[in-house]
Amino acid sequence: MRGPEARPPQATEKRQRAERRGHFAEYLAAAWLMAKGYRVLAMRYRTRRGEIDLIIRKGDLIAFVEVKARKHEGAALDAVSYGAQHRIRAASEVWLSRRRDGGRLSYRYDVVAVLPGRLPRHFPDAF
Predict the structure, then answer these.
(1) What confidence tens digit (pLDDT) does each residue in 64-105 have?
(2) What is the pLDDT of residue 2?
(3) All domains in the chain, ordered by first residue
(4) Which residues contact 112 (CB under 8 A, 6 or more apart)?
């Protein structure tokens, strides 16, 4: 039996490329949202219950953002599965519970699609 540490070199390289592409997409999305007037509060916020790519704020509104790098907008939106939405919501509950003002803030769940050769596309209140 081979464990996860015994992956073939091609699989490891492919995974590393995908991670780099995802991190680049997150930075690009953060820059785009800052240009739109949002303040980035956290990137890659991780809890035992899930992970949130970006947490942004504008006024009293907090947005928990999932970033997807895909070739087409539809594919980016479809990539945010029900399971992913559940994990993002669970992680957002943890984040909100750790803030004194968490109960007074309004919040939503957004998606940013990062597409090749185009500016990122922000989908507010996506789920």
Answers:
(1) 999 999 999 999 999 999 999 999 999 999 999 998 886 678
(2) 55
(3) 4-123 (3.40.1350.10)
(4) 29, 32, 33, 54, 65, 66, 67, 68, 120, 121, 122, 123
